[in-house]
Amino acid sequence: KGPKAYAQAIEDYKVRVPAVTPHDEWLLQKQKELDESAAERKERMKQEYEEKKQDEIEEIATEWAKREYFRKATSGDMPYSEEEYIKSVWERALFEGDLKYRMLHGQETDERKELAEFKMKQEKKKALMLERAQASLDEILDEEDDLVKSGKDSDDE
Hints:
Order of helices and strands: HHHHH
Largest sheet: none
Distance between the termini: 114 Å
Strand content: under 5%
Shape: elongated
Number of helices: 5
Low-confidence stretches: none
């Protein structure tokens, strides 16, 4: 054997690739499952956080809407029931709930600026809805005018 065989054994050892065993394959499979599970777990936790956040915002919004209802109900006569009033101010309540949630969790808020932006959006939305309602009404009135001009009565149909 001697020094040549020893040197050759060292060289062989350096380039030798260890044989893959069934245990190695099992470990590789388990690691892959854990990696997938970690990604799924992360996604599930993110989803749970978003659901919890939305639930908390809705809870705060409901409290805000109820406070507003009772404040207005005690200051004068309120033409709506509590549920009707809450439904009518729900978008504003969600805005207030989101703002309060972010304040409670230490996130950046600029209450006056955000409220002004929200009110501006609501005014635009209100104007758009009014436009659509007006267009719909005009269309119905035009149809009625056409029926009257043609001599037909809508009750005759």
